[in-house]
Structure formats: C-alpha cells, structure tokens
C-alpha cells in the first residue's frame, strides 16, 4: 500500500469519527434560498420593559401548500413581514410571500398554523397577532389558499379576525361534529406586581383570556363561557397541547401558563363542555410554562406530556439567574392565593391511565434545558423510540441577578422614574441568554440521552418556534427553527440507511379531510408505537401534516390500526416500510367502549374506613426556618401507628401518634367497627410528636404495652418531650414507665428477644439531633430485665429503619439498620451481644428510608428490599461521584451548617445559590459581591481550604431503591426498575395480596418535605413486587397512593378479614379491602 | 469648640519646625467618608437596621480617637456598657489625630459593607495624596487609626450580630389573621426578626421603650383597628386621585427611603434602590454640620451621637415589630377592600407596628435638636441623588413629623404606628441625649 492510501485512510477515519454521530446538518439558510430573519428591533418605545414577551419569537408552519409533494415553509415575523417559501426540490426554496399575499398587516405576529380550514385540499395559513398593546395594530389573519400559490385573507368571514394578545391557536374537533373548531391561546400582560387570587381566572377578559371557537358551518362562534374555558386577566398562555388524554374519544386540552397562573387541564365532558381538572391529575407543574408537546414515550398506547420551563443546566447561568421560589412565598401563593404547586424546571408527565400523571423529568434527564420554548417528540433516528428536540435561548436574560440587584438600579432607575425609557446601554448590561438547542435520544426506558453535541452542532442561538417536516422526502424528520435576529436554522436529517420508516397521510371526511385527531397504533415485532394526529405542537408552530413511524430494522409495520375521530377504526396489515402510505377512511368499524387493559384490581378502599377516623395533621414547624441549609426536613417523620390488642379482647386495636401538641389516639375494635377510645388518657403524648410506636407485651403480664418514639426535630437538647415513652397496660389504663435517657429524634422501634431470655428487648433508632443536622445521633438497644430496660448505645448514623432478621441462619435474629448518608449496617447477634459485620460487597451509602426481608429472586434465601431517595431528583450520586454533604460550623458561631454538593463535570457545586448560602454564612456576601463572581464556582473555590478541611464530609453512593441480593450470606446491591425510582420509598409490607399463596411485597412512598428546589415527590402510586421481574404499579391495582406521602403499610385483621391499612403524613389514614 | 483654633495654632507652631508640611484633614473629608459608606450601602442593599449598625461603629471609632486628646469632649467609655478605652498611641509626635480618626472610620466601614473595593479605591486615593504630603505623619497616623479600628472592631464583633445571622427566619405559618405576611411584589421574608437581640449602646434592654400595643386586630367595622385600616385606604385613594404632584405624594416619595424596591415586568425584574431612613437622617446631620460650619471634631461628634440614636431606635422599633407582628395594610386591603389596590410606596418587608420611620425620625430629630437647637431651619437635599427635589424644614422636629406621616400617605402604615412610633422615638431620643454626655460642658 502506498503512502497516499494511508493518507486517505487516515483522513477517512478522521472525518468519519468527527461526524460519526452527526445526525443533522445545517445548510446555510441563504444557500437554500431562505433569506428570512426574524429581526427584533429594540427602541425606546418598545423593548423587554414595555412588552414582557418581546423575546418570544415568531412562528413557523410547514406543509405542502401547492400539493407538489414537497413541503413548504411559512415563517411569521414579530416585527418583520411574514414569509412563505415554496419548496422547489433539492432543498431549494423560493420566497413567494409577496405574490402569495401572506406578508400580513399586523404589527406583531406570533403563532403560525397550516390547516385546511375549508377542506378544499389546499392548506390554509392562520397567523396569530398581538394587538392592542404597545401600539400594535392588525388582527389574526387567515390566509385562504386559492390553489394557485396565492392566498386571500378571509379571517373576518370565518369570524377569526381577533385583535387580542394571541400567541397561538389549535384546531381540533372538540364537539365531534366532524368539523374542526379552534382554541385561541391568548396571553396576559397583568403587571405581575402581585399574584392576585387564582379566582381571577373566573372573570373573562376579552384581550387576555383564551377562547374556544365552535365551527358553525364555516363561521366560528365564541363558546368559551358555555364550554367552561377560563378567560381571565391572569392567563399567560404560551403552551397548548391537544390530545385525548383519557382516551374517552373526546379531545382534551392542556394549556401551559407562564408565571404564577396554573396550567389548565381541560378534560372534555363530551357534551360541548370541559372540566378543568389539573389538580385531579397533576401533583405539580412547570412554573414558567412555555411550549409543550404530547407523545407516547413509554409505548403503552397512552399520550404522555412534556411542558417546558427555564431551568439552566449550566452552573454559570444557574447561579446567576433568579431561581426557585422561597418556600414561604410558595406556601403563601398556594394556601392564600389558591394556586397549585409549580416548580421551575421542565416537567415530563407519564400518563398513568385513569389515575394521574407521574412527573419524571429529572429521572428522564430532560429537566434542565435553560430558556426553553418548544419541545418536539419524534423518532429522529428511526429506531422506533421517541427522541426529543428542545429549542432554547433568549437574546437577553432579564432574570440575571446582578442585573436585578446591582446594574439595573444604576442604569435604569433614572430613566424608569422619569421617562420610562431605557436606552441600549441599559439593555446591554443584561447578559445574553443565547444558548444551544438540545436534542435527546430516546430509549426503551423513560430515559433520554443528551445528544446535543453529537446529533446536532452546538450553536449559540435564540431559537423559538420549531416545526417538523420531511423537507427532502427521504423519510426521516427534519426540523425548522425560527430564530431571533438570526436566519432560521434548518436541521436536515441525514438519517441512516439501515433504519426504516413509514409515513402515513390520512384522507378522512369532507369536513376534516386530513383526519386531524385520528389515533394510530403501529405494531412491529410486538412493540407498539402510538401516534395521535395533531399538527399544532411545540410552540407557536404547526408541523407537516403526516404521521411518522421509525421502524428500525423492521421492514414493515405488522399492523396499523387507525382510529378515526368518529370513533370507528380500521386495521391495515403488513404495511411496508419506507413509503408514504395514504389511508382513506374505508370500511371502518365502531370502536367498542374503551376497554382498559386493567390488571386485576386487588384493592378497594373501604367506604367507611372501618370507623377509623384518624387524620394526621403535621404541625407548622418548618425545618428550613431554623436550619436554612438543611437538604430536606426531619420534622415530618410521623405519624406513628401500631397495631395490637390493647383491651385484652383478642381483637386488634390501633394506636395513632399525633404531631406536636396533638394527642395520640387509640381506636378499639368492637364487633362491627373501630371506635375512638376517648378515655385512653395518654397525656404524656399530648405534647410530644409521636413518630413511631409499637405494641407488645414488654413486662410479661400477658397484656400489651405501648412504646412510642418521639421526634419532630423541633424540641431540642434534653427536652423531656423528646424522651421516648413506655406505657404499660394496667387493665386498659396505661401507666407511664420511664425509659432510660434518650433525647433524640426517634425514627424506628423494633422489639426482639435478643438475649433469648424470653422477654422482648428493643432497638430504638434515632434519626437526627435537633438543630444539628448531619451529626450522627446515638441509637440504643434496650435490654429488658423484667420490664425494666437498660440502654446500650450504638452510633449507627442517621437511622430511618431497622429489622431483626436471622441473616446468618444461626437461629438468632440479627439486626440490620438503614439510614441516611450511611450504608446498611449488619449486626450479628452473638448470644445477645451485637457485633457489626461487613456483608455488603460494595460502597453503599444511600439516603435509605426503609428495609424489608424478601426473597425477591426466588432463589430460596432472604434478600433485603431497600427504599431509598429515588432517582427522580436533582440530587446525583454514584460511587465515582458521590453526593456530598459538608458538615461543620463554618462561621464559628456555635451553630453547625450542612452544605450539600453535587458533581458536575468533575467538580462539586453547592446545590444552593449565593442568597441561600450567605443567608446563613454572611461572610460569603463579602467574598462574592456579585452573583457572577459566585456562579460557576465549585465548593473548593467558594470556601478556603482550612475552612473546608474542618468539615466532615458525608457521602451517598446511590439514590436508587433496590435490593440486597443474598449471595451465600454476602450481599450485592441491585437497583429496582425505573418505575420504582420516581419517589422515595418509605414503606414496605409483605403478604399474599393476590391469593397465589406466595408472598408479595407492597412498596409505597412519596415525600414533600423539601424546598421548591426539589419540587415534590408526589407521583409514585405504590407498587406490588411479586419478584424482581414482575412489578405492578399501585394505580393499576386499585390503590390511590399518589399525591400523598405514605409512612406505614400494615395488615389489619378485623371482622374475620385482612385489610390493608395505609398511614400517611398529614393526611387521613385509609383502609383498603384486599379483594383476593 | 472655641478653644480649638488656639490649640490648632499651638500644634501648627510645634509642627512648623518639622520639615514636611502637616496633612490637613477637614470636616469635609469626614463628610466624604460618610457619603462613601452611604453610597456603598445603597449598592450592597443593606436593610435599615443593619445600615444603622454600619453607620454607628465607624463613627464611634473616629469619635473615640478625637475625644481621647480633646478635653472638650468626653469619651464614650463609661457611658456605654462594655466599651473600654481605646489603646493610647505610643508616641504622639507626628500623630495626626484627624487623619487617624478618618482612617479608623474608613477601615471599620470597609469591614461592615460587602463591596470593599468601592471603599478601597476611595481610601487609596486619599492615602496616596497624604503619603505624598507627609509620609511619616501619614504612616504613623494610619497605623494608629487601624489599631483603634481593630480595637473597636473586636468590641463590635461581640454585639451578637453574627449570632443573629443564623437564628430562625420569621415563620409565616400561622392561622392568626393579624399576623404579618410577606407583601407584593417580592414577597420577601420578614427581615431581621432577631434585631432586638443586638447589644444596644445605651438601652438597658430592647424593650426599655416598649410602646403601648397597637389597636386590637378586628375586622369589625366599629373597631379602632378597622377604622385605621379604612383610613389608609381612603387617604390613599384621595391622594391617588389628586395625582403625583400632590403634596402628599411628594411627601411620601421624599421619605420613601426604601433600600430595595423590587420591580417586576414579566420575566424582567429590577430594583430601584434608595438610602435607608437612617441614612437620610445622617444626611441631614451633614447638612446641619455644614450650615453651622462645624469643625472636624464637632462634626464627628454630631454624626456619632445621631448614629447612636438611630441605632438604638432600630433596636427599640424592631423589638416591637416582632412582638406585635402586625399585618400590613396592603395585605388586608387586598383581601377585604380591593384586590388590585397598591400602596403609593412599596410595602417594606417587616411587620407594621411601630413605624420605623417614625421611631427613627423621632429619635434622630431629638438628638439633632440637642446639638443644633430647636427651630433650626434647613434645606434637605439628601434625596437629590435619587431624583427627588429639595424640601425645606423649619426644624428637625417638623421634619420628623413629616417623615412619620409620610408612611400613612404612602399606604404602608396605620396611624397608630406613626403616632405611637414618633412618641417612642422622641422619648428614646431624650433618653439618649440625657445618657450620653459627650460635650464636656454638659458634664
């Protein structure tokens, strides 16, 4: 081989490496004939100060307007004229705007939609406009396609010539009368100085309120009021998604509202009206909701939803931008102003049919994509999985903290006060928020991999509206992005030879010829791909009207089921790949009323709760008020619950603990019901916060006693109300017997006869020391000598749970302790002496919440299920890069602080920003007197070496819940599947729930004791673990455990049956009947 | 004071045998240093109570240096608990006490604010100038100034300030309808809920001038509280209808003195920042010192006494604020009268009763009256930098009356907080004046 060959080979290797993964290329706009730029001109009269949505960008709509088989592109301009480009083939475009008559007359254009409104076979164009503020004139324009590359504006004729603050519109047949109606999305310009009550949405405002318009034979009638659509002065509508979310055959609508206004989830009642149902289905939403998109991302045939927000991934932008709500402000907005939980990050909601939407953006790796406008799910690499594109960027970051606090005052104060003008110099002080767009590769799981620097080129843009199309008819999806002050970006998908595709176009009925609202189920190799056909997606845009399937290496769809909007369906078999299939409505059959693929329902809530009327109310104490840097609360561990016979009638009675200054309660079981026993004087427990309890006969008098662990993380020092309680049963009167001095916040009480002397000894685990979070408290083993206990302390860590189980099969029950910032600890029982043994093959510090023995892999030995924090969290932990918590009295004021740090690209950053940190450590404000000087700094840059060196560093290696697999007495950790990682798992319970004579374990959790930084862990509906491969989520089994925080699961034997008792924090206990 | 020029002459005669000329420090230099601190405080955004501390300690350091060698003035030692005598200079030869006092003022100020470089650049240009004139004198005086700054700094650090930083935030979780709640638009947490634990200079406790409680909370139309609430609403609407040029709006804005007014327009947020009420009265002190042509030490004395008064006023006032924890009119008016009502001034982030402006103005005006006399006419141009006009007053007391009532016009206080607050401040002022015997003649 000669030298030149080598050169060529080297060159080839080099170039192919470079571009190996590059899925998209960006032809220069001018090279393909696109000369449009959405130029935004800031003037003294019009800028971000005068108009809050100055940087939201224009719109884009794509479709074949002349039916030549090539998709054409329409861009709306904010201040510039709209343009229409005819696709001439070979990726060449011709600007025909002027002749076409679509340039428009409005001063400020926004969303653009292509729709064949008159069903003449030619796509028409609807362009939204903001009119009536800032001197903006014009109206929403409807360009009717004349069929000869010219258009006639006819909005007035159709009744769609609105002069309001429109951002977008969507076409859907909400009343199922066969024609397309329209939802008009308007945005508010309310001053935002105060929230105002959420009820503001009930009062209609013509300019800012959304509108629902019914198509009455070609004229659109405003039916908003009668249809139950909110139209308030508060509705900052930026996102709209249409989908039959509950698959009842009627399209529903999700509206994303910016700022404090809640998003709206309109479920279609099927009678021309909607019911706004956000709170019934969503535990929390995005706060600054922007664009959104619907797709089935987990291949279960149900539409899932993503809503965008503006959380930066980059530390520099993150720490110099206004961040999450203050927790007290949030609480006030919710409790006093009537708004729902909202957090500043993207949200990905997985549809849990007939139950709720489970939010998993953090776990799925799509929560932080900065100032995000448009999300589009599509199978970009044709591998059969939904990928995700997110457009992103803003010319100026108006929420830059230095700008807000320091620069703005100097620069604009005078101008604002005196003239309300801002000059360019002032605006120049706002940092640029131009960032790269994001693209993620989907997988078989709900997990997305960031491919932004591989599939596309990382650019620096402010991209807003985006649309999907196949511009070059090669079967893979291209992306068109309308940018601010730069030419649009056209992402041409180069695809891959090996990956197959299918495009489907529909030919439905005369009043909806493109079949908007149809549902398509494509099956190949047993895998389902579900599509619902709406073209209005992302943000201020409509995509090319066809349905796309990526088929990977399959050469066909084995079957394609099309459900038409009229509730009929037809099925095509063996649909060949790599073609555009045009499906006309043929001999379709009526769809039978939705048959849910219900698993066997195992649980049913008991109507009268068996008379148990216990409702736990957590007290108002908030840990973050006192220990501002605590990573999560410690005051909400309760309530305690314990089961046992308390009145010597051989029936199971119930003890429930109260929160601080709330009395504990005893429910006695009589012949038909549980009855609150008012006489049971538990005065000692009136002030204490009872977080854990157990009922057993400790003093050997054949009557059950009660032991109660106190906590609450509020009382401190040797406060007597922190002392755990031991009540002996004296003919159903309970007498207080003092336990040894233990003044810490308890978390678990587990009795067991350790020394084999026939009485019950006790392990009491303690979680934390009040006002000294991070320091390991002492836990104790109480040895029972004829009902008198002596204590021996164990410093095990921040303990949450423990079990007695004979892990070494020597006939003596051993102790396993789990807790936070620690590894599960095994203590071997050697004739009453506990000896710590090392049985885990790995570093396994976690935020362990719960442990339960269970042979999950059916191999005959006992494994241990472990509940952890879960993976749906901003916390990050691995063995290589553990989550770290620095614990020290950093400022030498006799008060310790904890600083939690997560790793990003090799360095550790505090999760909190400068304001939060300096609120506790004032010297940081002196060290960093701008936010920019603090942003991007790692913990080692923020604190001096000697200050850090005095800190104890606590670590977590995994946040995943999972199990310790027993391998001949040693243990390996195996994480659970992703559906069990969405929330902390706080409770397990084993029993034969499904009547198969095998034990299954029920797991439950959710947790709310975190700051808005974390949001709320509210979506886990519980799960039944039959074995490591067979796990069913609670919502499919009849359990309703989402949006509540479970503390205990217990089997309750009563009235000759076994029930499931679920005890929640800050909610009413619930009893479920076990149906098998 | 009359003796001072003679002393100066004697000193000058002594120094004239030196080769290098003497560094001249005038009261204007001290004004400039105080102005610089005020300016940095506005930039760094300090809350009014914290600002009062930043004014007081540097003034005391400067004062102690001056008083230590001037028989006309008494040291604060013995008058303020746990303040001990500053170190004596080892050698007074070539020691310029004014310079040392100014250095101590700048140094302590620098430690108290955040943006040190702003003070440093101001300081360094002076250092350079002084060094060129007489480097020996400069070095020696600077060293002494820094030594005293260190000494006062150590005493200052024991005032519980650091400890109060990590005390619990004010909890808004309560079912009590009268309890203060954060107010629009920023809904900030209540600031300095533990300021009553800061060590006072003269008071035996923060509660020494504990005012009568506010009218009992009641939304009953006949109750005193309700009537006062209604009054805020009615007056505000009257003023608003009169327009921005009305006397009441002018008064409200002139005395706004809010260090951080948050403004939100969509995603865009910014702040307009002004001096604190304490800084406004410090500004008035400057005006009076200039008008009366006070010399250096008298100027330092006036600042010191006034800033101590202001400091005590905040402790006293904040003690009551977080005792009564009273809800602001804005919250109630939005809830019961008009949900779109906004006060003319932005409601500051702490409980309503008593009015900080009233207590501070009552106290500061009393102290200033004791120094400059009653019926002391002055033209107040303090707020010109913030785009507000000059206002003229016949006396400090009249100015205080106006500052107090401005809060009612501004829609952020009920009348009781103003009337009672002003009285609280005046009594406190009398107490401070009586307790602090700074001028030797008042011994």
Number of domains of chain B: 2
* Order of helical and strand elements of chain B: HHHHHHHHHEEHHHHEEHH
Largest sheet of chain B: 2 strands, antiparallel
How many individual β-strands of chain A?
A: 72
What is the mean pLDDT of chain A?
93
Enumerate the strands of the largest sheet of chain B in spatial order, edge to edge or round the barrel: 1-2
- CATH class of the largest domain in chain B reads Mainly Alpha
Structural class of chain A: mainly beta
Instruction: Specify the CATH architecture of the largest domain in chain B.
Output: Orthogonal Bundle
CATH fold-level topology of the largest domain in chain B = Vanadium-containing Chloroperoxidase, domain 2
Separation, N- and C-terminal Cα atoms of chain B: 15 Å
Apparent shape of chain B: elongated
Largest interface, with Cβ-Cβ < 8 Å? A-B, 52 and 43 residues
Strand arrangement across the biggest beta sheet of chain A: 5-4-3-2-34
- Number of continuous helical runs of chain B: 15
Shape of chain A: globular
Structural class of chain B: mainly alpha
